[in-house]
Amino acid sequence: MRTVTEFSAGGVVYRPASPGPEVCLIATNGFRYWQLPKGLVERGEPPEETAAREVREETGLTAELERQVGPIEYWYVRSDYDRPSEQVRVHKRVVFYLFRYVSGSTDDHDHEVDDARWFPVAEAATLLSFDNEREALRKAVEMIGG
Asked: Full-prediction pTM beyond 0.85?
């Protein structure tokens, strides 16, 4: 099986709320997964711009970049884009950034996601489907002091 490497960028978007900050998560694959917004870095596009674009597209929100949270890495298998009858092993690296909500509505998310919603940090941590994204959220929450 062929192995490919992919590089993506995404964001942890937060807003102040009472009693503590809320973060925006997206639902994908028929509401099977709750995740942080992310997507492939396009050729020539800085990862920070990719993260802001993916946040805007997948959540419907405009947000201001504050700082880098850090990278995660994982492996998975998918159909080969060039040869759909064959499988490829993907080594994925995603760098996450912390974003502060500025404007927009989660109702305006794009067709790639099933839903986008705000959650209190503790609830978001239990909903996230993947441990490595849960760790990215934990780091982001430390940065915002929540």
From this structure: yes
